[in-house]
């Protein structure tokens, strides 16, 4: 609710999905209420297709073509003109669905009820439980990132072009390596044991747990990806999702539950000794390390709660960070000037690559590097990892403008209205970002003393349910970018054709549909060797 009101003050672009024909008494009440509040209706888009499902089908088709975010802009501009940012989209037979209920029903079978999937009182309790764990000093484990960065370098090194000793790799896709790394980091941060998808030889033997099979570390990424694809399909089918065969989705859910359950049971059985059993990492006693499961177990011993909350954070934090890293290098490989300027900043501050001394401090990362922060902000503007967010109005409310012929009147929003907030479309508006809104230009964030952002820029959401991991994601991404640019002194896009349009592949998060096809040059390459 808070978000809806605040967003309404500054977000003149949104879509309303509403029940196409509310009952007459409701209609009359809405009209009276709207009049009383001095509101005028927002423009209504044409009803399209059989039973009005045209808009929904167009959206699904665009999503399949990996251009869903652009479609939102084209659909509204095409029918209403470029100056209309608030529209009502009539979809016949569209059930009024509480968005959280929708999310809960789609996601709960896989991740259980936790901070991401719950609502109301249950969400408040979840947030109170999980939030303290994200206090900054808990997450400053740079040594953890460094170990996984080294595994990333080893994975990149496999693409080295050894025949023509020139230091450049063959063309390869960087994106899956970021997904592996993010899964490895998150599983270590959540359960204390990484799945080591980047390098399975790093896996340590786990203790035996009577009555439980060892967790399937090999296929957890596969089950997460498979389950997410089904969540997407189930979401699209919504009330007809019972038509879908349940086996595959159930198999993914069962495997993921089993994986998390194993660690939960081990923690519950071993108590504080759980931390002693973690692989010893140099320089830091295990008891000092941050493991979310361990922290949560100090507050609750409920195995289902522990499983659900950790899985909720796993899904919220893993793919989002990987997708962001992918997009950063997608743009860097296409914008040599940005790469050069960013690398200069990094080398000036931290010096060239040294394997055993990254020279990076947590404080610097938390405060943010000047140009690197601009690069991250600009990347999330051009390719938001969550390109469309949504809310439901919990009670009657008003958006301050968008109604009437001049679109300057308030718009009445009845209780239960679903509001879509197209984060990507917001980032493309010339009236907010200037005539070059469609260009990737991090400098815009530094001009005129530095751009501050409000609700016109919401890649991490806003209001009460704003992303809990924003700082963690920024710190993690910054660390990886710094180390990558120390280690590699040149990057080339290897996408074919070179001018291929950007593709937004959406499965909950939004990643590049063509991957991140690059060649990188190793700064430590010795030509004489
Ligand atoms: C680039 C990286 C990330 C992006 C773009 C992102 C984006 C978002 C967005 C848009 C939401 C709000 C969803 C809504 O409106 O309901 C959200 C919620 C959340 N995010 Fe993130 N996120 C990122 C990384 C992370 C990380 C690394 C973690 C944790 C390790 C995390 C944990 C969460 C949690 C727990 C919530 C739920 C908050 C709540 O409902 O109270 N996120 N994120």
TrEMBL record:
Lineage: superkingdom: Eukaryota
A GO molecular function held by the record: iron ion binding
PROSITE patterns noted in UniProt: CYTOCHROME_P450 (PS00086)
Pfam families given in the database record: p450
UniProt KW keywords: Heme, Iron, Metal-binding, Monooxygenase, Oxidoreductase
Organism: Dichotomopilus funicola
Family membership: Belongs to the cytochrome P450 family.
Annotated InterPro entries: Cyt_P450, Cyt_P450_CS, Cyt_P450_E_CYP52_fungi, Cyt_P450_E_grp-I, Cyt_P450_sf
Cofactor(s) of this protein: heme
Name listed for the protein in its UniProt record: Cytochrome P450
Chain positions recorded as heme binding sites: 467
């Amino acid at each position: 609710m808070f978000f809806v009101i605040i967003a309404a003050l500054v977000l003149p672009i949104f879509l309303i999905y509403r029940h196409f024909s509310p009952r007459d008494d409701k209609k009359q009440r809405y009209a009276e209420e709207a009049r009383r509040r001095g509101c005028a209706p927002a423009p209504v888009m044409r009803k399209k297709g059989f039973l009005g499902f045209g808009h929904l089908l167009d959206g699904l088709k665009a999503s399949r073509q990996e251009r869903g975010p652009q479609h939102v802009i084209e659909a509204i501009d095409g029918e209403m003109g470029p100056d209309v940012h608030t529209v009502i989209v009539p979809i016949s037979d569209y059930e009024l669905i509480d968005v959280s209920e929708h999310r809960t029903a789609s996601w709960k079978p896989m991740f259980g009820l936790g901070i991401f999937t719950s609502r109301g009182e249950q969400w408040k309790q979840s947030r109170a439980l999980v939030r303290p764990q994200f206090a900054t000093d808990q997450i400053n484990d740079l040594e953890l990132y460094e170990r996984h960065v080294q595994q990333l370098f080893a994975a990149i090194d496999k693409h080295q072009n050894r025949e023509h000793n020139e230091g450049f790799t063959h063309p390869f896709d960087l994106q899956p390596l970021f997904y592996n790394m993010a899964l490895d980091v998150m599983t270590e941060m959540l359960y204390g044991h990484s799945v080591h998808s980047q390098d399975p030889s790093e896996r340590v033997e786990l203790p035996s747990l009577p009555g439980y099979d060892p967790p399937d570390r090999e296929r957890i990424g596969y089950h997460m990806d498979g389950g997410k694809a089904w969540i997407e399909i189930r979401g699209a089918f919504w009330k007809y999702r019972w038509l879908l065969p349940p086996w595959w989705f159930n198999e993914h859910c069962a495997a993921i539950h089993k994986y998390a359950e194993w660690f939960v049971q081990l923690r519950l059985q071993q108590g504080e000794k759980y931390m002693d059993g973690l692989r010893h990492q140099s320089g830091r006693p295990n008891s000092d390390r941050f493991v979310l499961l361990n922290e949560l177990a100090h507050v609750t011993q409920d195995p289902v709660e522990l499983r659900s909350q950790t899985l909720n954070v796993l899904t919220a934090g893993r793919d989002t960070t990987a997708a962001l890293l992918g997009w950063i290098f997608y743009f860097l490989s296409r914008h040599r000037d940005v790469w050069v300027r960013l690398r200069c900043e990094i080398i000036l501050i931290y010096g060239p690559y040294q394997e055993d001394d990254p020279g990076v401090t947590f404080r610097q990362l938390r405060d943010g590097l000047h140009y690197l922060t601009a690069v991250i902000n600009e990347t999330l503007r051009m390719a938001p990892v969550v390109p469309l967010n949504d809310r439901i109005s919990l009670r009657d409310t008003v958006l301050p403008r968008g109604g009437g012929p001049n679109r300057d009147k308030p718009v009445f929003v009845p209780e239960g209205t679903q509001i879509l907030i197209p984060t990507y479309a917001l980032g493309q508006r010339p009236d907010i970002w200037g005539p070059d809104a469609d260009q990737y230009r991090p400098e815009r964030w530094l001009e005129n003393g530095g751009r501050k952002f409000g609700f016109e820029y919401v890649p991490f959401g806003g209001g009460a349910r704003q992303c809990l991991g924003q700082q963690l994601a920024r710190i993690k991404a910054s660390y990886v970018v710094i180390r990558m640019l120390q280690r590699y002194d040149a990057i080339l896009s290897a996408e074919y054709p070179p001018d291929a349009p950007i593709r937004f592949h959406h499965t909950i998060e939004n990643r590049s549909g063509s991957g991140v096809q690059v060649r990188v040059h190793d700064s430590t390459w010795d030509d004489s060797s």
